[in-house]
Amino acid sequence: MAFIAIVFVILLVxxxxxxxxxxxxxxxxxxxxxxxxxxxxxxxKAPFISELKEITIRPTTETMEDIKTVTRDxxxxxxxxxxxxxxxxxxQLIDLVxxxxxxxxxxxxYDRVSEDLRLFCANHTIDEVYNxxxxxxxANVKLxxxxxIKRLGLRGETGIHILNLVVPKxxxxxxxxxxxxxxxxxxxxxxxxxxxxxxxxxxxxTQSIKAILDAEREKDVLEIELQKELxxxxxxxxxxxxxxxxxxxxxxxxxDIAAYKKEKxxxxxxxxxxxxxxxxEMAKSLANNTKFYFSGEESALGGxxxxxxx
Length: 310
Hints:
The chain folds into 4 domains: 1-56, no CATH class; 57-172, Tetrahydropterin Synthase, Chain A, CATH 3.30.479.30; 174-271; 273-309, no CATH class.
């Protein structure tokens, strides 16, 4: 009984195991990969004849080893600390392991990244890799790796995905780095000069805009002053015209009154100075004289008296 108990404990210890969260367990029975897998938790396997392999399926970050490449112009450069974040679909895990082994990430991702990075550098110059096209490296390499995974995948399904790829700037030879540093210094000096030119241009434009605004403001002020002056002149003219019209109307009224007075006086005179009235008044006037000298009826006085008395 003791022997049986000891064997039972040994078998139990050999079969029981724990799978961590974020991973699944796959089993090899006598070297053959089994179709089933185990989810996180406490699990059992056939003792002695089954081997457990725990595979991480949640997103993981892998920092790759240094990659040496050669550019198109024959410059050797080294990429350090390339990082890749990837995850695995559980439904495709068994097929991936059966086709590419438990290190399928290295086969499908890490080796492909190294290969595509070397191809990119081989097709471009050191200046393109280090400067002008550096930002295109990640997109180019990631696209090529994903196409390789699809091409090598299972039934058109990849089962593994690249979530992020980080490629730092490579190390370049010291003499080239010194030259690039000089170029950067000159470039920054050029930037400073360009910025100064832009600043001076902005200042001149600002002064020009200010002068234009001042001129426009003075023009507006002058136009307002002119309008005020014109309005003042117009009001003065209207007032003068009104005064002139008042004087004219007053003079016309005076003239009309005088003309009316003369007209009425003339009418009255016409009615008053009738021939009979004139004879009577002359007779009265002659009556006041005591002496008359005339030389007969043919004289002027004699003719007048003759007309009056007849």
